[in-house]
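Q: Hi! First time doing this. I have a protein sequence and I read that you can turn it into a structure. Is that right? Here it is:
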Amino acid sequence: MTEPPTTEPTPPAEAPPLVRIRDLHKRFGDNEVLRGIDLDITEGEVVCLIGPSGSGKSTLLRCVNLLETPTEGTITAAGHDMTGPDADLDAARRDIGMVFQQFNLFSHLSILDNVAIAPRRVCKTPRAEAEAEARRRLAEVGIEGKERARPAQLSGGQQQRVAIARALAMKPRLMLFDEPTSALDPELVGEVLAVMKGLAAEGMTMLVVTHEMGFAREVADRVLFLDGGVIVESGPPAEVLANPRTERAREFLHRVLHPAD
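A: Yes, that's right. Below is the predicted 3D structure, encoded as structure tokens:
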């Protein structure tokens, strides 16, 4: 009896990247801040952007959710064609959370209302459901028992954790962080980074602009060094941070890691 021919199983199709950026340029007048960025980020990946001031890091981040409109190029993020003619930015920004350098909380609202307001207004979530989710998110970032406080009654680190909870309340697929610890006193930085480490451990896809090299070394899957609007180096943290290939990256990292020299 002839054995039936064996067939190799078809490998599963590779999932498309959660973020895909192609030939991204951004100009402000005659100043070309981004000069042809190509970048893919897979779901669950943590990518840290490092580089000197003016290198284009924050502009790149802000282009992902169209807080800045690209001059040229294409961006898809969290399933949304951000640069297409029919881009639905409201829908996209429900799936793309962002945390800024400044906390941008509503000073006249309680902490609970700050976190619950977007689900209520944007997603039309009933108040009770939105507040229950807000309490859960506040507990997740270690802010409990302060739901009725106003932002001014909290430390900077607590306010930034509330800002993270606010972004998470929309249940995003992608989180963008624009130097989230730069406005904090040094002793408060750790509590915000701890929350971010927890999100990374849970599989949140994150694109982070940071000068916190210890965080990048510990948490990032990939580190990108930007300079002059281009990606100069890209690779695992141990490669980029410990053994940079370019003189420009070596100079930058020496200044950041050894500021007293």
